[in-house]
Specification:
The complex is a heterodimer of chains A (252) and B (348). By secondary structure, chain A is of the alpha/beta class. Chain A contains eight helices and ten strands. Chain B is an all-alpha fold and 348 residues long. Classes of the chains: A alpha/beta (252), B mainly alpha (348).
């Protein structure tokens, strides 16, 4: 058996009567970037929220590094090396930058007392080294709500980086970004691959996905409609297939 | 096989500490809400001194404030935590009385020990446990059943008051026996004939809650839950547990406030606490805690409580008719909350 970083076997998810996902089989290799494509409501977000432990699948199995994991929760997934840049960014906008960087994973003593100085130090270091923030408005003690869209996205991304994730999930990361910021993001995703890590990249824009992904998986109506290696398919051909899937529910 | 990295061990050590030189304008901006209420506090104080110098330049009035304000301020401090978490608790007045019912039962049940000090000590412990359990029940209903806490605690407020009346048959009872124990001077004594012990307890509660809120993971999660519960959940914060713990904190300190209030008069009456509902809430909002969650400070509530606690006496001392008190209350509360809202919009 090949050793995958992550594998989903026959995963289904119901929300009450509604079936959001049906028999999903999904693999993520080591050092691989997989693009998830699909129309609105196809089930992409549900799928990644299962991977991040936010939703529990109704049936099916999840494997990390070949090992079955039961009752995956968000803290457990983060422990297993999954970090996520959510579509909704998952920031607390009234709080300071350092509190957001360490959201849900505060550095603290065994009794739970916060190591504030270290969190501020690390935030400051990340700001300079990884975010390239130059604006004076941005400091570890500034409130995130005042940042621009790109800066907020930067916070969400750098947060995923800090915790040395093996799998980085990016849910619509280009939403609301300028052209320059989008280019920066593409470089960042390529950097994930160079660092020997894996990523799942979800985007509406087929070009963004095609440019960085090794493989694309097309999701339609809660099912895997097909998958392609980006080296084997042209972007125009992929686009035609996407339109066909959206209209007919079949790739051919 | 690759072992998953434990995220809490970050990469390279930081060589230089992040530090910003002190800047008065930034300090003012970051603490505008606390400085604002401090301004209101000092401003009112000045007005009081000018209008009634005989009263406000003598130490007795301050001794009086420090005697009566802690009764509700001890509840306002943990209530701040609940409001920061974007929840509400209206049941705390009933918890004060229900805690004392626990006290009464525990005292009678341990009377066979034959040592009043030990029995009263155990009874105090029982009151605190009853309060904490009621807070836990509030939290469980809010989190697990998913009913808004405002609605839940309107219900539990009636329920526990009703329970008090049923369990005591609506009777008052004297607690004269506590006066012979060490607990009496410890909780409500007067140090040097001037400083009431309950004031010291208020300071201790404030420091404790401040540390929890600002230096502990619990407090960090309280702010996050109140700010954006969805984000907190996505990032793995146990939002349910955090809120339940906040309700337990209110329960614990409400029962404690009940013990102090009834020890002070050595008396229990089944309606105790019911007059404190609005004062306590007003202290929290006066102090700059936002009803929208995610924002609030212990210091603000502390000052807010003393503003509320002094208006009554001040109105009379200044020589205005007592009918004016409520009008002044309302005026100061609305003005201060408007000030906080304005300052928040300007803050960075």
């Amino acid at each position: 058996m090949e050793d995958y970083r992550l594998e989903l076997r026959n995963v289904s998810k119901y929300f009450g009567e509604v079936q959001a996902l049906e028999d999903i089989n999904f693999k993520l290799g080591r050092n691989e970037i997989v693009g998830l494509l699909g129309d609105n409501g196809a089930g992409k977000s549900t799928l990644i929220k299962i991977i991040t432990g936010y939703h529990q699948p109704t049936s099916g199995e999840i494997y990390f590094n070949g090992k079955k994991v039961d009752n995956l929760t968000v803290p457990k997934a983060r422990e297993l090396g999954v970090e996520t840049v959510y579509q909704e960014r998952a920031l607390a906008e009234l709080q300071t930058l350092w509190r957001n960087i360490f959201l849900g994973r505060e550095l603290c003593s065994s009794l739970g007392f916060l190591d504030i100085q270290r969190m501020k130090d690390e935030t400051h270091r990340l700001m300079n080294e990884s975010m390239g923030f130059t604006s004076h408005a941005v400091s570890p003690d500034s409130r995130v709500g005042k940042y621009s869209g790109g800066e907020k996205q930067g916070v969400a991304i750098v947060r995923a980086l800090f915790f040395e994730a093996d799998i980085i999930v990016l849910d619509e990361p280009t939403m609301g970004l300028s052209l320059k910021e989008t280019a920066k993001l593409s470089n960042f995703v390529k950097g994930i691959k160079q660092a020997g890590k894996s990523a799942i990249f979800i985007d509406h824009n087929i070009f963004h996905v095609y440019n960085v992904a090794d493989r694309v998986v097309v999701i339609d109506r809660g099912r895997v409609a097909g998958e392609f290696m980006t080296q084997d398919i042209g972007v125009n051909e992929l686009m035609e297939k996407m339109v066909r899937v959206a209209e007919t529910g079949s790739l051919e | 096989m690759n072992t998953p990295t434990n995220g809490t061990s970050p990469a390279p050590a930081v060589t230089q500490h992040y530090k910003v030189p002190f800047n008065i304008r930034r300090f003012a901006r970051q603490n505008s809400s606390q400085l604002g209420i401090l301004g209101v506090f000092l401003g009112l104080w000045l007005v009081f001194i000018i209008a009634a110098p005989n009263t406000f330049l003598s130490p007795q009035i301050y001794s009086a404030f420090m005697t009566s304000t802690p009764f509700f301020a001890i509840m306002a401090i943990p209530l701040t935590v609940i409001v920061i978490a974007k929840e509400m608790d209206l049941s705390f007045p009933s918890i004060t009385a229900m805690g004392m019912v626990g006290f009464w039962f525990a005292y009678n049940a341990t009377a066979f020990i034959g040592n009043t000090t030990v029995s009263v000590g155990l009874a105090i412990l029982a009151a605190l446990i009853v309060g904490t359990i009621i807070g836990w029940i509030n939290g469980i209903i809010v989190v697990k059943v998913g009913i808004p806490s405002l609605v839940v605690t309107i219900g539990t407020q009636f329920f526990w008051r009703g329970a008090v009346l049923v369990l005591t048959n609506g009777k008052n009872f004297p607690l004269e026996y506590i006066k012979s124990t060490i607990w009496y001077p410890l909780l409500v004594g007067k140090i040097g004939g001037f400083l009431p012990a309950q004031m010291i307890w208020l300071v201790i509660v404030s420091i404790l809650v401040w540390v929890l809120l600002n230096r502990h993971r619990f407090g960090a999660h309280v702010y996050l839950v109140g700010d954006n519960i969805n984000s907190a959940e996505l990032m793995g914060v146990d939002t349910g547990r955090t809120r339940i713990q906040a309700f337990m904190l209110v329960g614990l300190f409400s029962a404690f406030a009940g013990v102090i209030a009834s020890f002070f008069v050595a008396y229990f009456w089944p309606n105790m606490g019911s007059g404190y509902l609005l004062n306590t809430l007003a202290a929290v909002f006066l102090g700059g805690t936002s009803v929208f969650g995610g924002v609030g400070t212990v210091l603000g509530t502390f000052l807010g409580a003393f503003i509320i606690g002094s208006i009554d006496a001040a109105t009379v001392a200044i020589g205005m008719t007592g009918y004016l008190t409520q009008l002044i209350y309302g005026f100061i509360i609305v003005l201060s909350v408007a000030m906080h809202s304005y300052l928040r919009k300007r803050a960075d």
